[in-house]
Design goal:
Elements lengths: L46 H10 L1 H9 L10 H25 L5 H36 L3 H31 L3 H39 L10 H20 L7 H30 L3 H4 L3
Helix pairs in contact: 1-2, 2-6, 3-8, 4-5, 4-6, 4-7, 5-6, 7-8
Length: about 300
């Protein structure tokens, strides 16, 4: 042996013939595309931050008030997408009916149509407000054993949503009602109070409009009580509204055949969707009305 230790064997040329490379694959200039650096997750809002956000953002406050928040609530994204499509198609069909049989050619006509749609949504919400306490009570007392008390405790969030919506709507009479009591109240609070009242009305307007849409979509967050309740109550609401349209002779200027189509279209489609939702809850999540009642 010589004075030097043995050396490792040289690495044979790599790559294709005529293009020898090192032991590692070649890198494009600049090191090649790099994977995006993942952003750190945002820390959850503290209780104080959530309260502050509700104060300056009425839409966030409406989401907190009217969306189900029970941690173990089952959410079916397919059903939610179908509900969104149904809402969009229903609005489109309503616009076709209005533009065909109620031509809108002036700004006043646009205002009238908007008022009609808002009044219809508000009446639907009021009907739901009146009907759902009886439905909740019937559902809770039909349950067995400890489920009865559990559902009654869970219903507090739904009743809180009702109270929040009614409270937001109560600010408007205080600001604009012509009766002597509210006029005296406005005189008593003076200009600074009126500034606060007008600001509160503006906040309540965004909260109430978005809240009505969320109430109709989530049926006053009754999924917090049990997942089978929203499709049941939605079906009840839509058939009650159809009955009210018949009693009030809505859209009397529309031809009979078109009225029948639009009158039955919403109840039938909502009923089919609700039955399909109950079917998916039973098949994919093992949630049934019988199981919910503990029977």
């Amino acid at each position: 042996m010589g004075p030097y230790p043995p050396q490792p064997a040289p690495v044979p040329p790599q790559g294709y013939p005529g293009h020898p490379q090192g032991p590692y694959p070649p890198q494009p200039p600049g090191g090649g595309p790099q994977p995006p650096f993942p952003r750190p997750p945002r820390p959850p809002l503290t209780r104080g931050q959530r309260i502050l956000k509700c104060v300056y953002n009425p839409f966030y406050a409406a989401q907190r008030a009217f969306r189900p928040s029970r941690p173990d609530t089952v959410e079916d994204l397919t059903v939610r997408k179908i509900q969104m499509w149904r809402t969009g198609l229903g609005l489109g069909a309503w616009l076709v009916l209005v533009m065909t049989y109620k031509p809108v050619d002036t700004a006043k006509g646009v205002e009238t149509v908007a008022d009609d749609k808002f009044n219809q949504s508000w009446i639907s919400t009021l009907v739901l407000v009146c009907a759902f306490p009886f439905a909740i009570a019937l559902f809770a007392f039909a349950a067995q054993g400890a489920l009865r008390g559990l559902y009654l405790r869970r219903s507090l969030k739904s009743f809180g949503a009702v109270a929040a919506l009614m409270g937001s709507m109560a600010t408007f009479p205080l600001a604009v009602a012509p009766d002597s009591a509210t006029a005296g109240f406005r005189d008593a609070i003076g200009t600074p109070g009126m500034v606060i009242l007008v600001t509160l009305c503006a906040w309540s307007l965004g909260f109430a409009l978005y809240g009505i849409a969320l109430c109709l979509m989530h049926v006053f967050r009754t999924a917090d009580i049990h997942e089978v309740l929203p499709p049941i109550l939605a079906t009840l609401l839509v058939w009650v509204m159809a009955a009210l349209d018949v009693i009030n002779n809505e859209n009397a200027e529309v031809p009979v055949l078109a009225r029948i189509v639009f009158l039955l279209g919403a109840p039938v489609s909502v009923t089919v969707l609700s039955c399909w939702e109950l079917y998916r809850l039973r098949k994919h999540h093992n949630l049934t009305v019988r199981q919910a009642l503990g029977r």
